[in-house]
Amino acid sequence: MKKLIIISILVLIIGVLFLPSKEDENNIVMDNLIYVDVLVKGEVKRPDSYSVPLGTKIDTVIRLAGSNEASVYVVDDPIIKRNMTVLVKTRIENPVNINRGIRSEISSLPGIGDVTLTKIMDYLENHSFTSWEEFSKVSGIRNAKLLEIKVRAII
Fold first, then answer.
1. Distance CA 129, CA 131 (A)
2. Neighbour tally for 54: CB within 10 Å
3. What is the spatial distance between Cα 155 and Cα 137, in angstroms, rounded to a whole number?
4. Would you give the DSSP letter of residue 98?
């Protein structure tokens, strides 16, 4: 009888230790990783909500959703966070190269008025942009504008 009780307790302990998952404030915890849902929508083959480990790179989720190499997206941070939505669009065929600094091309981008254009041109006099994050720091460039600019331009 003692052996049966000890075996039962061991089976119970092992079963609890190896439960596949549990809920943690609307997130799934599996293998000591927290999984969160990310909504991917826009120009992808499979727009949907994807459960991925917290901290996954957005590029990974976009590939899961079936994007092409010309896909662009805008988010504040390239790392997945809770309750995140990623909007994906496809870049046009002949994008404007912002670092070339051609005023007429840059001014043709959506949301680039005279004041923002001047700030961009002033920056390009001594530097070139190395990332979209750096470009987004130009006063007047907001995330809503940035996605439309990324669709039509490259850094």
1. 6
2. 15
3. 14
4. G
